[in-house]
Amino acid sequence: MENVTAMLGPKRLIKKHEFVRIIIQCLNSLGYKNSASCLESESGISHKSPESKLLEMQVLNANWEDSIGILNGIEDLTDETRASALFLVLQQCLLECLSRGDDSSALAILRKRVSPLKVGREKVHNLAAGMLSLKEMGMGKIDDSSICELRRKSLVELEKLLPPPITLPERRLEHLVETAITAQMDSCIYHNSFREISLYEDHYCGRDQIPTQTVQILTEHKHEVWFIQFSHNGEYLASSSRDCAAIIWKVLENGVLILRHMLQSHQNPVSFVAWSPDDTMLLTCGNGEVLKLWDVETGTCKHTFGDHGFIVSSCAWFPDSKRIVCGSSDPEKGIYMWDCDGNEIKAWKGMRMPKVSDLAVTPDGENLISIFSDKEIRILNVGTNAEHVISEDYSITSLSVSRDSKFLIVNLNSEEIHMWDVAGKWEKPLKYTGHKQNKYVIRSCFGGFHCTFIASGSENSLVYIWNRGNSTPLEVLSGHLMTVNCVSWNPRRHQMLASASDDHTIRIWGPSQPRNITTT
Amino acid sequence: MMDVDPRQYENVAINDSDIHNIVLSYLVHNCFKETVESFISCTGMKQPADYQEDMEKRKRIFHFALEGNALKAIELTEQLANDLLEKNKDLHFDLLSLHFVKLVCSRKCTEALEFAQTKLTPFGKVQNYVEKLEDFMTLLAYEEPEKSPMFRLLSLEYRQQVADSLNRALLAHANLPSCSAMERLIQQTTVVRQCLNQELSKDPPPPFSLKDFLKS
């Protein structure tokens, strides 16, 4: 017999006999019964505890009174657990009485022994009600092997109820290993793709998983580029500029972007674009500009909404790609919901409507989020009309929502990015800092596998990337010559990031690899 | 209390024979045999030939059901109205369950279990019956069923409910109204008052209270 208090591991945290016992359990559950019993005899440690073995013997042999005696004799059980365990034994006993046609014994068990147990009315009632179907089953249909099977099943249920060390939780070793792996994955700051984990090495991803290097520079715009966004399928990028145009770029198979359509019809700078969820249409709008709807395939303008009296500051789509909402930067103009032909569906307007500077609809379509008067985040549940408001102390210049519809981030001109939960349960936001922002509209976005990263532009020409778990930047990317206004992370190619700058260019970033920079 | 102006009643003429019919229908519904006889002879009304016999039979069936002797009630019902229980499965089930309850109360639990299996389970897997049956079966779990959560099923009120249903079914079978005219009139007045209450927002008449009406 081994020394019971032997400890394992460099920190001596692991009790040796517990470790061996869960290995034996694992061997058994994998089907290696011989190895399991070999290990039991070599180590002198038994998989099942003495109480457990006794109980097994009594239950399989239908020695109900002895089984009950054992259960009553176990000291560390709560009353509730003990009552549930006794219930299981009595239930099996009752069933076997019924199958033998011994109705009166079965009834006696039900009335005199099960009823008084403190297991809750419902369990007792279900058993009483179930007696009829049990009787049906028992009519000569239950043979010895089925009875044995049922006894085994109730034994398994019993074992699940009893606490360690009498019985072990199922698959304990697998659970512990999985916990360790999950912890490794959670602390992997560069983790950006689905990769199979090997037990042979601690998991960690390198810096090469995220975009850190310029791989392409797009120069078609003739003035400051203010806004960019990848389409939902990651196959296109839309950009808009102070040069009053918007451009649709195609992302080729090999990751290079080429110009597809130049959308020139606005009279003023275009500051905002929005892709329809099905990526067939694009909305463009800007300061002092109307809202235009474009067909992505042909690059033609299909509709113009509103007039010069209604200044659209931002817009968003509902998941059906048929309805859009847009907000006005004029106070009292409010928020409008339109269909693609320009028919008004709903409006929130009037004297108390403040100016709307940003809008988003969560990808699941449940919530409409608006930025009111620069400092208020208003989250409206579209179905129930319930709304809650988060007030910030500084002006908000950007709003982005994560792909799972659960989180939003806002840029504040106090040089902080705040993350809030859409459900409104958090009392404080998560904060990210390091970038520069005082005067201009700087935008940020979620990105990467499971949106674990946040990227933002900055007034010092740099692009900043954070892992959501840390408030200080993970990477700072240099290359642009002037303020970086906006960033967008490709939702399908998790290693592709785009940034738009006052230096008239858009840069595409990719993982660090030896690669030539392509300029188009 | 703002009520309908009693002087308006003067404008409504009532026919004596209508009143007689209302009273008679009440007496017949509840099988007050001797009272019916004297009432008819006092008022000189006409009745179909074997109304006495039918009333007597119905009365016996009703009382057997009321005291819990469901099997006797079922036997007599089948003699009187052959396919009635087949056409009223809910009623049939409720009557059989009365017998089940009787067995449980006399502590004949094994018999009760047997009875439930042979007579009640054939009603099939219809959700309604399955739920009702479960409720009854829970009575078996208690040594003192009167103290179980389902004690209502052992009560006189419950038996009354089932007996009333049986009575109405028998009346319907004999092409008589299943509700006495008296009942219907009171129900009518109450509903009309409720409707008026909803329609008139200003000074509506109060809900109909039979007690207050009789006192006034």
TrEMBL record, chain A:
InterPro entries: CTLH_C, LisH, WD40/YVTN_repeat-like_dom_sf, WD40_repeat_dom_sf, WD40_rpt, WD_repeat-ST_regulator. Gene3D superfamilies: YVTN repeat-like/Quinoprotein amine dehydrogenase. Pfam families: LisH_WDR26, WD40. The keyword ATP-binding does not apply. GO terms for cellular component: cytoplasm. It comes from the Eukaryota. Its main location: cytoplasm. Keywords: Cytoplasm, Repeat, WD repeat. WD repeats lie at residues 218-251, 263-304, 477-519. Residues 48-105 form the CTLH domain. It is found in: Cytoplasm. Interacts with RANBPM. This is CTLH domain-containing protein. It comes from Vitis rotundifolia (Muscadine grape).
TrEMBL record, chain B:
Residues 54-111 form the CTLH domain. This is CTLH domain-containing protein. It comes from the Eukaryota. InterPro entries: CRA_dom, CTLH/CRA, CTLH_C, LisH, Ubq-SigPath_Reg. Pfam families: CTLH. Coiled coil: none annotated. It comes from Vitis rotundifolia (Muscadine grape). PANTHER family: RAN BINDING PROTEIN 9-RELATED. PROSITE patterns: CTLH, LISH.
